[in-house]
Design a protein that fits this description.
It is a single chain. By secondary structure, the chain is α+β, with helices and mostly antiparallel strands. Helix content is about 20%, strand content about 50%. The strands form two sheets. Strands 2-3-1-6 form a four-stranded antiparallel beta sheet. Helix 1 packs across helix 2. The longest helix is centred in the first third of the chain and has 13 residues. It is elongated, with a radius of gyration of 18 Å. This is Nitrogen regulatory protein P-II. It holds the Pfam family CdAMP_rec. InterPro entries: CdAMP_rec, N-reg_PII-like_a/b, N-reg_PII/ATP_PRibTrfase_C.
Length: about 110
């Protein structure tokens, strides 16, 4: 048995969950916040049998896309007390996945 923790961008969470459900997998959704941009993420908990690992990972990978986003950052200017605001392009989205071995799982 495996427990998958998959952290996906909020924009991708609905599609990932829908595709997992359509393929017969149960998902528990937890709302979470990323520390880098402080934007919404969704953490998915998925309990599966060992042989289901690769199909589940493929579903997550196919439905969680990386994208670029512009964020405003403030930098120090050449003179004291002078600041400049610049746009910086960062990569967001995709998924971060942790797979843990589970000794036992029960549903009541």
């Amino acid at each position: 048995m495996k427990l998958i923790f998959s952290i996906v961008h909020d924009d991708d969470s609905y599609t990932v969950i829908e595709e997992l459900n359509n393929s017969g997998y149960y998902v528990t959704k937890l709302c979470s916040t990323g520390s880098f941009l402080r934007t919404g993420n969704t953490t998915l908990l998925i309990g599966i049998n060992d042989e289901e690992l690769e199909p589940v990972l493929e579903i997550i990978k196919a439905n969680s896309k990386r994208r670029t986003q512009y964020v405003q950052t403030t930098t120090h200017g050449a003179l004291p007390g002078i600041f400049a605001t610049v746009g910086t392009e960062v990569s967001v989205g995709g998924s971060t996945i942790f797979v843990i071995n589970v000794e036992k799982m029960e549903k009541f």
